[in-house]
Design goal:
heterodimer; A: alpha+beta; 9 helices; elongated; B: 27 helices
Chain lengths: ~375, ~575
């Protein structure tokens, strides 16, 4: 049944488990399927199992249980060099004793491609990453960004259909990283290659990917496009891990269709959207993004519930104002307001009333 | 324009366009910096000084001295200075023994040398070049006193004064008020200290008289030597000792050569004239005949040629010897086949060191690979096993191999017990090349493993993974990616093992037998048994040069930058 459901899947993990020591599972029951041409990012804190998944896909680790399929074929027993998967490593792994051109030519040589053909492909790959003049250099003579491009070119030169990238931008400075993010996504889409990208940098994940798989504790917590991930996290972990997030704890008072009423621990009442709660009386963590909090409660509907808050700190950040409030007994409630001409600048100690649209506030599982 | 004015107007004390850069206090910056750094430099020097001095005194200096010995040859000209001088004109190719003058010079030189007991040392030295010279010198040293006995007897029969110590002293010193010839005495001081290596600068209570040393030059010279020797070596008083026979022979020769007594009015003039009258009718002293009587080998041209060839203070003889050559009539020539040994030994040393190095590489590579790829805990345990031999005495390890490999040893017993080898034809695995190679490979293995391991542990596993993800098989990714990066470790280990092996001594000595010994064993033999230090030094120099040349070649081919010890 699963096979027919995922007929167009190019990469597929089916109930994959992995354990290194036979005592704990690093990857627990992983199910994932990717269509051809997709750019998928595995995002998660360190130790969440994302790199292990990548290594299993590349063939450097074997799955303890389950099936990994590539283009409809199980690759569990295929050695890495026969999988035809391009890979970019964290520290690039450019061979230091070979020149750039020799590095690029290596995958073609082992595939017994003729010399003239090889040279043409190497040249094309170098041009593709705008490194055409660097063929004769040694990796040690290149800057980090240049090495990164060469590593990318080497992973692409033998025209693989699937490319894996293991935190490839981790060693670059911020500006270069942003630039390379853009280049990598462009290249991937231009060439139509399927990409699995591993990172622990959520901005990178959000800006580059078609879909993001958030890993924690050996499981995919949510697999969704970036906007969905940010705006509609499925659970508290994802809400906390992606972007900035305010949480308030309380108990479900009433559920009516698309909204529910939550009684916070200090007795205040607030509207929320039920996500993974089931019944009245259950404990919940409600989650709201700082930029969706409204200070001007008049904008909200007549029957909207509001909260009293006291300004604790006002931080001027240029494009936005970041204000820390004391709300419902907690003093880490952040709101972000745009620096527009009519925006009021709150002062510490000021009493305000805050509220939000029920759909922006998600009632999630209690932590 | 305004900008330029601003710069000029700005009073910056540390930059000017023309003069040197100045520090804040107006002194040149360079000088201030040097001052500041001088303390640091002195401190650094102070820290290394103890080791530097230690190395210089106990290592560099002895080695330099040893190397100097490989060309040093002053013993011949120091022991036989007169003979060497006379020999210069002798033509070795003539096939005839040298003339009377050479033998006369030899008489004085040998007499003094045998008094100082230095003639046997020279004999030993020359024996390295020409067998038999040693015994020739030793026997002649004893008999040289008897040369010209008849003349001395005749002189003493003529006047008893010639036997009187005081008379001789007065004659040679020419009395207290006479002009002295201290130049002659200084010449003799120098000669004797060259001969014996002792200090002859002390005052001896005798200086030859000016007149007498002009009248009887040889006698004055011989008496001066006698006087110096008597005081410095025997610690006696000159005036109380009867002079040597050589002094009297010198007197006879001086008189017979027609010393002009007519103008001499000093002490002993009368006795001298009487002696001259007596000796006038006698035939000349036949030194050559006398020496041939002592030993007929004194007539052999080979011996004389050897002395002539090795008379200069520096010689290439030891080096020629070290490469199985000798100084022949027409310059250097190969030694007779049956005396050739060193070239063969050098070749064997090189060959065996290379084999040992090769087997160390083969054995160490997989172990180092395993070590660098194991988890830390297991790697440490394995490392201890690698280092364990270091904690055992070298002699114990070598002897253990003897137990293992000998014909009644563990391995042979096992093979016989298994029926793989017949009891009658047990394998010979010790006291030959095989034994040396096995034992030394085992002993030097850690020196190969350690640098290999430290290089391999710096190769990230991602390289091989990258190669495999790019489509290379296990073997290709090893050979094309891993191996080239481990080469520096192989290089470092190889240099270490090869250099250690080429100079190894203990193990080949114990397990090498006759076919498995190295050049170093021969060097040790010359140092401690044959005492031919010059040859040992020459062999050592060649070994050192060979290592340096190989090191240089390695640098040219592989590059010394590629050698990593970690």
């Amino acid at each position: 049944m699963a096979d027919s459901a995922n007929r167009d899947a190019f990469v597929e993990f089916e109930r994959v488990q992995k354990s290194y020591d036979g005592e704990t599972l690093v990857v627990k029951d992983l199910n994932l399927s990717m269509p051809k041409g997709e750019f998928l990012t595995m995002l998660g804190p360190s130790g969440s199992g994302k790199t292990t998944c990548l290594m299993m896909l590349a063939g450097f680790e074997t799955a303890t249980h389950g099936k990994i399929m590539l283009d409809g074929v199980s690759i569990n027993n295929i050695p890495p060099h026969k999988r035809g998967i391009g890979m970019v490593f964290q520290n690039y792994a450019l061979f230091p004793h070979m020149t750039v051109a020799e590095n690029l030519s290596f995958p073609l040589e082992v595939r017994k491609i003729g010399k003239s053909d090889r040279e043409a492909k190497v040249k094309r790959a170098l041009d593709m990453v705008q490194m055409g003049d660097f063929g004769g250099r040694r990796p040690a003579q290149l800057s980090g960004g240049q090495q990164q491009r060469i590593a990318l070119a080497r992973a692409l030169v033998f025209e693989p259909e699937l490319v894996l990238m293991d935190e490839p931008l981790g060693a670059l400075d911020k500006q270069l990283r942003e630039h390379m993010q853009f280049e990598i996504t462009n290249l991937a889409h231009e060439l139509g290659i399927t990409t699995v990208y591993v990172t622990h940098d959520q901005t990178e994940a959000l800006t580059m990917s078609d879909r993001v798989a958030v890993f924690d504790d050996g499981r995919i917590q949510q697999l969704a496009p970036p906007d969905e991930l940010y705006e509609s996290p499925d659970n508290s972990f994802v809400a906390q891990f992606i972007g900035e997030n305010n949480t308030l704890e309380g108990t479900i008072k009433e559920i009516k269709g698309e909204t529910c009423i939550v009684e916070l621990d200090d007795g205040e009442i607030i509207d929320a959207k039920p996500v993974n709660i089931s019944k009245v009386g259950e404990r919940t963590t409600i989650s709201i993004r700082p930029e969706r909090v409204e200070v001007n409660t008049a904008k909200l509907g007549e029957d909207a519930h509001t909260l009293k808050a006291e300004v604790a700190e006002f931080i001027y950040m240029g494009d936005v104002f970041r204000t820390r409030l004391k709300v419902a007994g907690k003093d880490d409630f952040i709101i972000k307001t745009r620096n527009s001409a009519d925006q009021e600048r709150l002062k510490p100690g000021q009493q305000v009333e805050i509220g939000w649209l029920p759909q922006d506030c998600r009632a999630l599982d209690a932590v | 324009m305004p900008q330029k004015e601003f710069i000029n107007g700005d009073k910056m004390s540390d930059t000017t366009d023309t003069g040197p850069v100045l520090a804040a206090d107006g002194r040149p910056l360079k000088r201030s910096l040097n001052r500041a750094l001088r303390r640091q430099k002195l401190r650094a020097l102070g820290l290394i000084a103890p080791l530097l001095i230690f190395v210089l005194v106990t290592f560099i200096a002895p080695i330099a001295d040893m190397l100097f010995r490989s060309v040093e040859n002053q013993i011949v000209s120091n022991t036989l200075p007169g003979t060497v001088q006379q020999l210069e004109t002798w033509d070795a190719t003539s096939g005839e023994a040298p003339g009377e003058a050479v033998y006369e010079a030899l008489y004085y030189d040998l007499f003094l040398a045998s008094e100082a007991k230095e003639h046997t040392r020279l004999g030993t030295r020359l024996n390295y070049e020409e067998t038999g010279i040693s015994s020739l010198f030793r026997s002649s040293g004893r008999k040289v006193d008897d040369v010209g006995e008849d003349y001395i007897d005749a002189l003493e029969d003529l006047n008893e004064a010639w036997e009187d110590e005081a008379f001789w002293y007065s004659l040679m010193s020419g009395g207290e008020d006479a002009a002295k010839n201290s130049g002659l005495l200084d010449e003799e001081r120098e000669r004797l200290s060259g001969l014996t290596g002792d200090d002859y600068s002390a005052d001896i209570g005798f200086v030859p008289g000016q007149d007498i040393s002009q009248l009887l030059p040889n006698t004055a010279r011989a008496y001066s030597s006698f006087a110096l020797f008597t005081v410095i070596e025997d610690e006696d008083v000159v005036a109380e000792e009867e002079p040597w026979e050589a002094v009297k022979i010198a007197l006879v020769q001086d008189i017979k050569r027609g010393a002009d007594m007519s103008g001499y009015e000093g002490f002993g003039a009368e006795e001298l004239r009487a002696a001259q009258d007596m000796l006038q009718g006698q035939p000349d002293i036949a030194f050559k005949e006398a020496f041939l009587d002592i030993d007929e080998d004194w007539g052999a041209t080979d011996n004389w040629r050897t002395m002539q060839v090795y008379s200069p203070p520096f010689t290439a003889g030891y080096f020629l010897n070290a490469i199985d050559m000798q100084n022949g009539l027409d310059g250097p020539e190969a030694r007779p086949e049956n005396q050739q040994i060193y070239i063969m030994l050098f070749k064997r040393t090189l060959f065996m060191s290379l084999v040992i190095m090769g087997s160390c590489i083969l054995l160490a590579y997989p172990v180092s690979y395993l070590l660098s790829n194991l988890p830390m805990r297991s790697a440490n345990l394995l490392m201890i096993l690698v280092l364990l031999p270091f904690w055992t005495s070298l002699l114990v390890r070598t002897s253990a191999w003897k137990v293992m490999l000998q014909q009644q040893g563990v391995i042979n017993d096992t093979l016989v017990w298994l029926g793989l080898v017949d009891d009658a034809s047990r394998l010979v695995m010790i006291n030959n090349q095989f034994g040396t190679i096995v034992a030394m490979t085992h002993i030097l293995l850690p020196f190969m493993i350690l640098p290999m391991y430290s290089v391999m542990s710096t190769i990230p596993p991602s390289y091989v993974r990258a190669a495999r993800s790019l489509g290379a098989t296990n073997w290709t990714s090893f050979w094309r990616v891993y191996f080239p990066q481990s080469v520096p470790g192989i290089g470092a280990g190889s240099i270490l093992v090869f250099i250690l092996a080429i100079g190894y001594y203990i193990t080949p000595e114990i397990v090498g037998g006759t076919t498995g010994t190295f050049i170093s064993n021969r060097i040790a033999y010359h140092i401690s048994s044959s005492l031919n230090w010059g040859l040992a030094a020459a062999l050592g120099s060649i070994l050192l040069a060979a290592v340096l040349i190989l090191y240089w070649a390695y640098d040219k081919i592989v590059g010394i930058d590629n050698v990593k010890l970690g």
